[in-house]
Amino acid sequence: MRRHTRKEKFQEWLSSPYMLLIYRLLAILLAISISRWMLYLFNSQFFHQLNLRQATGLYVNGMRFDLPIVIGLNILVILFYCLPSKVIYNKGLQRFIDIVYVVVNSLAILLNFIDIVCFNFFGKHLTIDFLKILGNSDEVSFGVIKQVFFDYWYLLVIFILFVLILIVV
User: Fold this and answer.
1) Rounded Cα gap, residues 27 and 78, in angstroms
2) Which of 6, 110, 132, 141 has minimal CB crowding within 10 Å?
3) Helix/strand/coil (H/E/C) assignment for every residue in 53-119
């Protein structure tokens, strides 16, 4: 009987389903963090009174909110990895969890990107007021939405890159 070397055990552990869960959670946490910096960079005119040190402090404080959000959004994925290993290795369930992970986290990133654009117009984060404005068809027309997509096309490209990274992870 062949004994596994320490290196083989470590490589096996790195490719385990539990490490995949950690990779996935870190990937979405990183994506949300990057989108927060993007909000700051794309709307720097609202933050002119902040220096880089203060902005970094706000960023670190924001991470306290990101972690529970990431865990909450991915609770189904996390619970899946708590199941017995026989279930975790089921290909059909793995595919379902992959889809849930990508869809749920893509929507979260999309909301952050919408927040980047809305912050420029409202001077504050996305709130329920935004939904009220969308519901009021007199204020928001298809032409306005088309113009926003035209003006912020690069955010759509970046969003697609974020989603592709989630798919790869």
Assistant:
1) 14
2) 6
3) HHHHHHHHHHHHHHHHHHHHHCHHHHHHHCCCHHHHCCHHHHHHHHHHHHHHHHHHHHHHHHHHHHH
